[in-house]
Write a structure and sequence with these properties.
Blueprint (H helix, E strand, L loop, with lengths): L1 E4 H10 L1 H25 L6 E5 L6 H14 L4 E5 L30 H12 L4 E7 L4 E9 L6 E5 L6 H4 L5 E5 L2 E4 L5 E2 L1 H17 L3 H6 L1 H11 L9 E4 L5 H8 L11 H11 L17 H4 L5
Parallel strand pairs: 1-8, 2-6, 2-7, 3-6, 7-10
Antiparallel strand pairs: 4-5, 8-9
Helix pairs in contact: 1-2, 2-3
């Protein structure tokens, strides 16, 4: 885990914003390229590469970037999201946590038999019809999309449960992604990666899913419990870990998230803690973020 000093990062951004942002982006690109090179060099016994990590780690974009990097190594990749194998709310009963709320991090949210069938067919070189999950309705769409691997291609299969063999039905090479960045305030207080991922989700959910920030905040405790129970224990199965956190992104959420944090209500204490760190960061405008940055997964192309 990398710990960034908020005051130092702000000073560097003030002096050379474009240079500092480029440096952060290049560091992540190096991780992606090094991971692809390692995968390409390894004896490949399966055309499936699993990519796991907690919610807000940037798995969707990391999978796409890794697929492109594999192609540059002579092993073309195609990204496949396990999110499309979620069961719709109408297909319940969905798993619940100890408080009776839907457990968003439970493997039982997935159509595991269908997922295992499709992965087995991909390993055997067969085509599959991948379902499409509509997050706005929390239901599966009526359509599917064809997915097939050409000779020498690798399916980069990403999802929070991708490293759980009880879910995937096989043992394939694995990568683990996490934000991997913490931020230290002048008084020594630290904002940890799980809080950074919360900031990412607050931005993403509002922009892409039209979800009020209160709804995302209400899930924070449950998501954390689910991660510790169902995702983090399988981290050791990964051969490579990718840290997606960037030094400049705290300033980005000062611009995009801070204005939306409620001052009162049931999440006032959590918001006060987030507000404390955000107010110390130098604001970064979405327009400063490269169009192909992993952070676009959380802020959109226009950041609005």
């Amino acid at each position: 885990m990398k710990i960034y000093d908020i005051a130092r990062v702000s000073s560097q951004l003030l002096l050379d914003p474009a240079g500092q942002i480029a440096q952060c982006e290049e560091a992540l690109c190096r991780q992606i390229e090094e991971t692809a090179a390692r995968v390409a060099r390894a004896p490949q016994t399966s055309p499936v590469l699993l990519l796991s990590g907690p919610s807000g780690a940037g798995k969707t974009t990391a999978a796409r970037l890794l697929a492109g990097a594999l192609a540059r190594q002579g092993r073309p990749g195609r990204a496949l999201s396990m999110d499309d194998y979620f069961l719709g709310h109408s297909e319940g009963p969905l798993p619940v946590d100890e408080f009776g709320e839907i457990d968003l991090e439970s493997p039982e949210r997935l159509d595991i038999p269908l997922l295992q069938n499709h992965l087995a067919r991909l390993r055997a070189g067969q085509a599959v019809d991948v379902p499409v999950f509509d997050f706005s309705r929390q239901e599966r769409a009526e359509c599917t999309r064809a997915f097939a691997l050409e000779s020498n291609e690798i399916a980069v299969v990403e999802g929070i449960h991708a490293l759980n063999p009880a879910v995937t039905g096989g043992v394939d090479p694995g990568v683990y992604a996490d934000a991997g960045a913490a931020f230290r305030a002048p008084d020594g207080a630290v904002l940890y990666p799980e809080q950074l991922r919360l900031l990412r989700r607050l931005s993403r959910d509002r922009i892409f899913r039209g979800r009020p920030v209160e709804d995302t905040l209400s899930l924070y405790a449950s998501v954390g419990r689910g991660e510790r129970k169902n995702i983090v224990p399988y981290r050791g199965r990964a051969a490579v870990c990718i840290e997606t956190g960037m030094a400049y992104e705290l300033g980005l959420y000062r611009t995009l998230v801070l204005p939306w944090l409620p001052d009162d209500g049931p999440y006032a204490a959590l918001c006060a803690e987030l507000r404390f760190f955000l107010q110390q960061a130098l604001p970064v405008q979405p327009s400063a973020v490269p169009h192909d940055s992993l952070l676009r997964e959380f802020i959109g192309q226009e950041g609005l």
